[in-house]
User: Which sequence fits this backbone?
């Protein structure tokens, strides 16, 4: 942006005019109408058929400021998100190393393949009791669950990514006698990046589920436990706010991944934004 | 150097021997870990005096009617929930492929529900619906429904509008539009969703069995872990994993079978 704009007076359209032009797009209007109808259906069907403690949108909105002022909520949210972040970082680092080694060295692949595939198919909830016995009934069990949930999908995708390096690139490297560190860091890692991102995305979803399940199971303070204890004492509206916090985290992650793919990995093949 | 080239070569016998060595090493490690820890902490694979093994326990389970009941109850839960999810999600996805305005308005909300960790809803289901079979089925349905719908929707987006326009110009019947355009276009994507959903539904199944009324393999694992019978815990986990591998493999075969339908432009 080097164009001089200092002397040009731009009259900002009024907020009403901007809102109107925003609503002029029929797609947006459809989305807003659909959203409002979903909320209305929720509100009235709960009012008509469900007991009074069940969450209703109006009550959720009313209770929202109270939850925002509740320090327990923020501590829980921070505890869960920090654990997910730590676990994903560990899973990403170790999963990438194992996965790329498997993708490029055939012996390692043959030795580990069945274990990685087997553990990937194993539902992490099933090993949860085992992990609590091994790591104790505290936060390390949750961290272990998160790592377990994330590691294998990252490793599998890293492996597929490392395998997908176009053979021509490697041949060119060989012809020019490129050093192996160049082959690894300038070719292999970059061409498997889109796969890694896909694996990381899968892993993040699974890690969030793992964190919540571990909190339910072991009763560790966190968003899962916040939901469970509020739902148990029939404060469903408060619990719904915490569910929304989890959804928000998932969405924020999803959209930031999409943004990174679009801006930094234009070689990412799958056309995400196609409509 | 020659040895390195040999063990990395693609000859069939090299492949088989390395895989066998991998399996043997893994089992040996398991056995060693099992023997070196307290039996309440970890069970070995084969085991022996004082250290009950996982493989013998699994063999015992094969003839144990109580275990059979658990497996059947888990399978019933899984299959009922999964079938309901498939039957609901795929037609809804195809309807959204047909009604573009509806798809455009609902897409965002479906994405939101797709990223929602459905486990978080279990406490609500528990306090609203209580114990019993159907609340658990609802959990499995919730876990499986959105991956299928989300992927079918992706297929719906790939339906070419030109084809629908040509169909309309020739006054094609609605049935033919579904049979010849919508279903062929969306089916491969729906099958990808079904493959994703098998893994999630299995998680849902076990989670429902833990946190709602206890039953099936989830109960087996939970009860055995409370009494520190690690051999039983590991044997049940192996059983669940076996189910997971079988379902995922079946779904993968189905997906590959119809992958060709994705068309040339995709």
Assistant:
């Amino acid at each position: 942006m080097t164009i001089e704009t200092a002397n040009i007076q731009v009259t900002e359209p009024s907020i009403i005019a901007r809102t109107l032009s925003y609503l002029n797009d029929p797609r947006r209007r459809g989305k807003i109408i659909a959203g409002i109808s979903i909320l209305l259906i929720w509100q009235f069907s709960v009012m008509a058929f469900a007991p009074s403690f069940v969450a209703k949108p109006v009550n959720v909105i009313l209770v929202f400021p109270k939850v925002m002022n509740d320090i327990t909520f923020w501590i829980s949210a921070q505890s869960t998100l920090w654990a997910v972040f730590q676990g994903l970082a560990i899973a990403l680092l170790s999963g990438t190393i194992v996965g790329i080694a498997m993708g490029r060295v055939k012996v390692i692949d043959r030795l580990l393949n069945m274990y990685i595939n087997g553990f990937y198919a194993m539902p992490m909830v099933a090993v949860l009791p085992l992990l609590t016995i091994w790591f104790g009934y505290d936060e390390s069990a949750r961290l272990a669950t998160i790592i377990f949930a994330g590691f294998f999908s990252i490793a599998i995708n890293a492996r597929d990514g490392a395998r997908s390096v176009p053979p021509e690139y490697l041949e060119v490297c060989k012809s020019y006698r490129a050093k192996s560190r160049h082959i690894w860091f300038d070719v292999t890692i970059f061409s498997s990046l889109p796969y890694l991102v896909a694996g990381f995305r899968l892993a993040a979803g699974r890690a969030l589920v793992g964190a919540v399940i571990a909190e339910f199971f072991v009763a560790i303070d966190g968003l899962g436990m916040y939901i469970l204890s509020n739902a148990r004492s029939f404060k469903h509206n408060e619990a719904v706010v915490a569910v929304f916090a989890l959804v928000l985290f998932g969405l924020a992650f999803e959209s930031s991944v999409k943004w990174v793919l679009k801006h930094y990995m234009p070689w990412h093949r799958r056309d995400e934004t196609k409509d | 150097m020659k040895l390195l080239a040999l063990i990395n070569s693609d000859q069939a016998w090299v492949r088989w021997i390395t895989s066998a060595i991998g399996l043997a090493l893994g089992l040996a490690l398991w056995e060693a870990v099992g023997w070196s820890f307290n039996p309440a902490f970890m069970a070995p694979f084969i085991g022996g005096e004082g250290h009950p093994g996982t493989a013998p326990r699994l063999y015992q389970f094969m003839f144990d009617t109580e275990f059979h009941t658990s497996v059947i109850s888990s399978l019933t839960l899984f299959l009922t929930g999964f079938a309901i999810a498939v039957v609901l999600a795929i037609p809804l996805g195809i309807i959204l492929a047909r009604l573009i305005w509806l798809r455009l308005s609902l897409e965002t909300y479906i994405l939101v529900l797709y990223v929602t960790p459905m486990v978080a809803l279990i406490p609500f289901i528990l306090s609203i619906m209580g114990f019993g079979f159907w609340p658990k089925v609802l959990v499995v349905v919730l876990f499986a429904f959105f991956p299928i719908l989300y992927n079918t929707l992706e297929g719906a987006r790939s339906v070419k509008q030109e084809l629908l326009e040509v169909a309309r110009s020739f006054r094609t019947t609605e049935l033919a539009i579904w049979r010849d355009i919508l279903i062929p276009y969306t089916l491969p994507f729906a099958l990808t969703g079904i493959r994703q959903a098998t893994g999630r539904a299995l998680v849902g199944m076990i989670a429902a069995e833990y946190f709602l009324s206890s039953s099936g393999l989830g109960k087996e694992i939970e009860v055995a872990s409370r009494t520190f019978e690690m051999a039983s815990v590991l044997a049940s986990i192996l059983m669940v994993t076996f189910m997971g591998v079988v379902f995922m493999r079946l779904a993968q075969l189905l997906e590959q079978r119809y992958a060709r339908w994705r068309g040339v432009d995709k």
User: Anything to note?
Assistant: The first strand of chain B starts at residue 47 and ends at 48. The first helix of chain B runs from residue 2 to 7.
